[in-house]
Amino acid sequence: MSERLGLTPAQTVGPYLHIGLRWPDGPYVVPQGTPGAFWIRGRIVDGAGQPVVDALVESWQADPDGRFDHPDDPRGARPASVPGFRGFGRSETDAAGEYALLTVKPGPLPTPDGGTEAPHLTLSVFARGLLHRLVTRIYFPDEPAANAADTVLAGVDADRRDTLLATPAPDGLRFDIRLQGDHETVFFAV
C-alpha cells in the first residue's frame, strides 16, 4: 500500500553551516592584487543590534562588463574580462559579526524590457534560526543616476532604499545587514 506523505517541514540552516560551507578562497570573488579590486565589509546584526556570529554571506554578481559566464545569460555565456573573476564569493562572520568580500565593481545589466539595472551585487544570508536564506542587494553610492533608474530599487519604499546602498570606507565599501527591527535591511522574496 502506497501512502502519500506531506511536505517535510523546513529546518533552520544552522548552527553547523560553517563546517560544510567554509573554504579558504571563499571571500575572494577575484584574486588578491586584481586591478580595481576592493573590499566590501559589513556587520550582520539581529533585531536587538547584537552581532550574528554564525552567519554566512554569499555574493553573486556580473563582471565589470555586466556579463555572466553562464548559459542563463540571455546574451550567451562569455568568460569574464577580469582574469580569475568567479562572480561568486562566500564569507562567514567572525566573533564581531563581520564579513568581508574582495571583488570588482559589476557592470549594469540589461532587463528583459530593454532597460538597465544599476550595478549591484546580490547577497544571500544564512544563519542559525533562519528557515530560509535571506536575499538582498548591494547598490553602489557612486551610481546615483543608474540607481534612480533601477526598477528593483524603485520598487522599494523610498524611506528604506538606503538599507540597500553601500557606503564608502577607507579600503572599499561598507554594507551592514540588520536582520530585523529598526532600519531592517530590505530582503527580497525569490
Describe this structure in words.
- This protein has three helices and eleven strands.
- It is globular, with a radius of gyration of 18 Å.
- The strands form three sheets. Strands 1, 4, 9, 10 and 11 form a five-stranded mixed sheet that branches.
- Helix content is 8%, strand content 26%.
- The protein is mostly beta strands.
- The chain has one domain (17-178): Protocatechuate 3,4-Dioxygenase, subunit A (Sandwich), CATH 2.60.130.
Determine the number of helices (DSSP H or I, runs of at least 4 residues).
Answer: 3
pLDDT < 50 stretches? none
Largest sheet entry: 5 strands, mixed
In total, the number of strands is 11
SSE series? HEEEEEEEEHHEEE
CATH classification class: Mainly Beta
Summarize model confidence as the mean pLDDT.
89
Beta-strand percent range: 25-35%
Q: Assign a percent range to the helix content.
A: under 10%
Shape: globular
CATH topology: Protocatechuate 3,4-Dioxygenase, subunit A
Summed up, the domain count is 1
- Which second-level CATH architecture applies? Sandwich
Structural class per helix/strand content? mainly beta
In CATH, the homologous superfamily goes by the name Aromatic compound dioxygenase
Q: How far do the termini sit from each other?
A: 38 Å
What is the C-alpha radius of gyration, as a whole number of Å? 18 Å
Organism: Micromonospora costi
Family: Belongs to the intradiol ring-cleavage dioxygenase family.
Keywords: Dioxygenase, Oxidoreductase
GO molecular function: ferric iron binding; protocatechuate 3,4-dioxygenase activity
